[in-house]
Amino acid sequence: MVTIGMNYQVLAGKEETFEAACQRVLEAMKDAAGHDHSAVYRRVDPCAAADYLIVSRWNDEAAFQSFLASEAFQKVTRWGLANILAGRPSHTTYRED
Fold it and tell me: So what's the pLDDT on residue 66?
Protein backbone atom coordinates (compact mmCIF):
# COMPACT_ATOMS: atom_id res chain seq x y z
CA MET A 1 0.00 0.00 0.00
CA VAL A 2 1.00 3.59 -0.60
CA THR A 3 -0.60 6.75 0.78
CA ILE A 4 -0.58 9.96 -1.26
CA GLY A 5 -1.08 13.39 0.27
CA MET A 6 -2.39 15.86 -2.31
CA ASN A 7 -2.12 19.47 -1.11
CA TYR A 8 -4.26 22.23 -2.62
CA GLN A 9 -4.53 25.96 -1.95
CA VAL A 10 -7.89 27.32 -3.09
CA LEU A 11 -8.67 30.90 -4.08
CA ALA A 12 -10.72 32.85 -1.54
CA GLY A 13 -14.43 32.44 -2.16
CA LYS A 14 -13.97 29.24 -4.20
CA GLU A 15 -14.02 26.79 -1.29
CA GLU A 16 -17.54 25.44 -1.93
CA THR A 17 -16.77 24.96 -5.62
CA PHE A 18 -13.57 23.08 -4.76
CA GLU A 19 -15.35 20.88 -2.22
CA ALA A 20 -18.07 20.00 -4.73
CA ALA A 21 -15.41 19.11 -7.30
CA CYS A 22 -13.64 16.96 -4.70
CA GLN A 23 -16.84 15.00 -4.15
CA ARG A 24 -16.99 14.21 -7.88
CA VAL A 25 -13.32 13.20 -7.94
CA LEU A 26 -13.77 10.96 -4.89
CA GLU A 27 -16.67 9.24 -6.65
CA ALA A 28 -14.52 8.69 -9.75
CA MET A 29 -11.67 7.35 -7.63
CA LYS A 30 -13.90 4.64 -6.18
CA ASP A 31 -13.81 2.88 -9.54
CA ALA A 32 -10.11 3.47 -10.21
CA ALA A 33 -8.00 0.32 -10.38
CA GLY A 34 -5.85 -0.04 -7.29
CA HIS A 35 -7.66 2.63 -5.24
CA ASP A 36 -8.39 1.76 -1.62
CA HIS A 37 -9.74 4.87 0.13
CA SER A 38 -9.59 8.68 -0.01
CA ALA A 39 -10.73 11.54 2.21
CA VAL A 40 -10.61 15.35 1.99
CA TYR A 41 -9.50 17.56 4.89
CA ARG A 42 -9.61 21.35 5.24
CA ARG A 43 -7.24 23.43 7.35
CA VAL A 44 -9.21 25.06 10.15
CA ASP A 45 -6.77 27.86 11.10
CA PRO A 46 -8.89 31.00 10.51
CA CYS A 47 -5.80 33.07 9.62
CA ALA A 48 -4.66 30.62 6.93
CA ALA A 49 -5.59 30.44 3.30
CA ALA A 50 -8.08 27.82 2.17
CA ASP A 51 -5.70 24.85 2.30
CA TYR A 52 -6.97 21.34 1.63
CA LEU A 53 -5.41 17.90 1.84
CA ILE A 54 -6.68 14.82 0.05
CA VAL A 55 -5.29 11.65 1.63
CA SER A 56 -5.54 8.74 -0.76
CA ARG A 57 -4.54 5.08 -0.27
CA TRP A 58 -3.58 2.94 -3.25
CA ASN A 59 -2.42 -0.64 -3.71
CA ASP A 60 0.80 0.72 -5.23
CA GLU A 61 2.23 3.91 -6.69
CA ALA A 62 1.75 2.67 -10.26
CA ALA A 63 -2.03 2.59 -9.72
CA PHE A 64 -1.97 6.19 -8.47
CA GLN A 65 0.19 7.32 -11.40
CA SER A 66 -2.25 5.66 -13.79
CA PHE A 67 -5.12 7.61 -12.21
CA LEU A 68 -3.14 10.87 -12.53
CA ALA A 69 -2.61 10.16 -16.22
CA SER A 70 -6.31 9.52 -16.87
CA GLU A 71 -8.20 11.96 -19.06
CA ALA A 72 -10.82 12.49 -16.35
CA PHE A 73 -8.21 13.58 -13.80
CA GLN A 74 -6.37 15.72 -16.36
CA LYS A 75 -9.62 17.48 -17.26
CA VAL A 76 -10.47 18.34 -13.65
CA THR A 77 -6.88 19.47 -13.04
CA ARG A 78 -6.95 21.88 -15.99
CA TRP A 79 -10.31 23.25 -14.83
CA GLY A 80 -9.05 23.65 -11.26
CA LEU A 81 -5.91 25.52 -12.26
CA ALA A 82 -7.91 27.87 -14.47
CA ASN A 83 -10.75 28.52 -12.04
CA ILE A 84 -10.25 27.74 -8.36
CA LEU A 85 -6.66 26.95 -7.36
CA ALA A 86 -4.14 29.53 -6.16
CA GLY A 87 -1.29 27.49 -7.66
CA ARG A 88 -0.19 24.04 -8.70
CA PRO A 89 -1.03 21.30 -6.18
CA SER A 90 1.78 19.35 -4.56
CA HIS A 91 1.75 15.63 -3.90
CA THR A 92 3.67 13.67 -1.26
CA THR A 93 4.01 9.89 -1.32
CA TYR A 94 4.17 7.89 1.91
CA ARG A 95 5.31 4.31 1.40
CA GLU A 96 4.48 1.55 3.83
CA ASP A 97 7.18 -0.98 4.52
Answer: 93
Find how far residue 21's CA is from the centre of its chain: 10
Predicted confidence band of residue 96 (pLDDT cuts 50, 70, 90):
confident
CATH topology of domain 2-95: Alpha-Beta Plaits (3.30.70)
Closest CA to 12 of 54, 52, 50, 53: 50
List all residues 6 or more positions away from 53 whose beta carbon is below 8 Å from its beta carbon: 5, 6, 7, 8, 40, 41, 43
- Report the distance separating Cα 89 and Cα 37, nearest Å: 20
Closest CA to 8 of 74, 45, 54, 66: 54
**17-61 pLDDT, tens per residue?**
999 989 988 888 888 999 999 999 999 887 777 999 999 999 999
